[in-house]
Specification:
Blueprint (H helix, E strand, L loop, with lengths): L1 H32 L1 H4 L6 H33 L1 H19 L5 H4 L2 H29 L6 H30 L1 H8 L1 H5 L1 H13 L5 H9 L6 H8 L1 H31 L4 H29 L1 H24 L3 H20 L2 H7 L6 H12 L1 H16 L5 H21 L13
Helix pairs in contact: 1-3, 1-4, 1-6, 1-7, 1-10, 1-13, 3-4, 3-6, 3-18, 3-19, 4-6, 4-10, 6-7, 6-18, 7-8, 7-14, 7-17, 13-14, 13-15, 13-16, 13-18, 13-19, 13-20, 14-15, 14-16, 15-16, 15-20, 17-18
Length: about 425
């Protein structure tokens, strides 16, 4: 019976993560190839790209708020309830994006509405990740890195689905119709995914760790206060551990899409390469997560950060070569092999940093604040390119490498967490 509960929890976490990130990263891809033309059509192309990435960043800015809000109630009321709420929020927000009028139709109201719905998306995904990870991690009694890693594997799987949805829609309706109305279809599909996700989530039981805390009773708490007061050092180090993974993630999945098109690659070519690399990332995240069960979280994450720091300096020359094979290889190596070394073990690692009573809040807050790097990096890099007249990729590579160095320092400052027991009540 426990194995059945674990399998259901892992399946729910993975599927929920796929759906949430389909919606969240669909916006990311659309911000690179559609929204600058649809919602910011009155601006200079480079400025429009910066503005489009700016609305993309607002979703990441809202994620810590979602982590604190849903983490608080998730630590007090349970993981399962919050996961249902986050899924509903995300599905509704994404569907409404698909119904938004364009700038040409209603002027400034269109981009404002886009920002508001992006904030709602950010709040939803900010609360989703922590609960989904804990559903798997707190059900697992062994191989916690692998089982928790399924939640992180849902992100590139969601990206594959979102990219395929945009690609298939563009191919079916044509370029002109795609920019006119076709881009809306992948967002409206969210309604169907929401129904599937809620059905699966309904069958999952609350985690044993949270049930033990609830049965033990105790005083009412404010988890975020406890985390900020009693676990400040761990929280700050946790943020530093995840920062490079997020900066690299958005560089490879969002910024490189826009840069590759600007460098002369066909948009579809870049999206195809992104789809292949994302599919590889699903497998690699699970592989490196499993490796962290055997070798420890720290060695795997450190190796990934060092490899990414080096790879950052060959990424853009490969993309700028104009060769489709090199572009695909760059994305497969970066997103499909190296990045998962940093990203896969994070699900278990963040869960292991905090006690059961404040684990949802602490893990969510650390992960989502680190996630600001993913939202701000494309905006920062696009601005660097604008200021340098379309050049400046060496500076971008150096910035990525700098974040990787920070991650190495923070990982080494933490003790190994892989052997910790998540079930005792502290």
């Amino acid at each position: 019976m426990p194995n059945v509960r674990l399998r259901r929890a892992v399946a729910s976490s993975f599927l929920g993560s796929v759906i949430e990130y389909y919606d969240f990263l669909l916006y990311a891809t659309a911000s690179a190839v559609v929204f600058n033309k649809v919602f910011f059509s009155s601006l200079d192309p480079l400025v429009a790209t910066v503005a489009s990435f700016g609305t993309f960043a607002t979703g990441y800015l809202a994620r810590p708020l979602g982590g604190v809000l849903f983490g608080h109630f998730g630590d007090l009321l349970g993981r399962k309830r919050m996961l249902v709420l986050t899924m509903v929020l995300m599905g509704v927000a994404s569907s409404l994006i698909g119904l938004l009028p364009t700038y040409a139709q209603v002027g400034w109201i269109a981009p404002v509405g886009l920002v508001v719905l992006r904030v709602v998306q950010g709040i939803a995904v900010g609360g989703e990740w922590g609960g989904a990870v804990l559903m798997s991690a707190e059900h697992a009694t062994r191989r916690r890195g692998l089982w928790a890693g399924f939640t992180n594997a849902g992100a590139p799987c969601g990206l594959v689905l979102s990219t395929v949805a945009l690609t298939a829609t563009a191919a079916a309706v044509g370029e002109r119709a795609f920019l006119d109305w076709g881009w809306r279809i992948p967002f409206l599909i969210s309604v169907v995914l929401l129904g599937v996700g809620l059905f699966v989530r309904h069958r999952v039981e609350e985690t044993p760790a949270f049930q033990a805390v609830r049965e033990a009773g105790g005083k009412r708490r404010v988890p975020v206060v406890e985390v900020l007061r009693d676990h400040r050092r761990v929280l700050l180090l946790g943020i530093g551990v995840g920062l490079a993974a997020f900066v690299a993630q958005s560089t490879l999945t969002t910024f490189v899409v826009a840069h590759g098109v600007a460098a002369g690659h066909a948009r579809q070519t870049v999206l195809n390469a992104l789809t292949v690399s994302s599919a590889c990332a699903v497998v690699s995240i699970l592989g490196w997560s499993a490796a962290s069960d055997r070798f420890g979280r720290r060695p795997v994450v450190v190796a990934g950060a060092v490899a990414m720091a080096v790879f950052a300096f060959v990424l853009f020359p490969m993309v700028d070569s104009g060769d489709t094979a090199l572009l695909t290889l760059a994305l497969v190596l970066g997103q499909g092999v190296i990045h998962p070394m940093m990203y896969g073990p994070l699900a278990a690692l963040y869960s292991e940093l905090f006690s059961t009573e404040n684990r949802y809040t602490g893990a969510s807050l650390g992960y989502q604040v680190a996630g600001l790097g993913a939202g701000l990096a494309p905006l920062l890099f696009a601005e660097l390119q604008r200021l340098s007249g379309g050049r400046g990729t060496t500076l971008i590579s150096a910035a990525v490498a700098g974040f990787c160095l920070l991650t190495v320092v923070c990982v080494l400052a933490l003790k190994e967490t892989g052997t910790r027991d998540l079930h005792p009540v502290s």
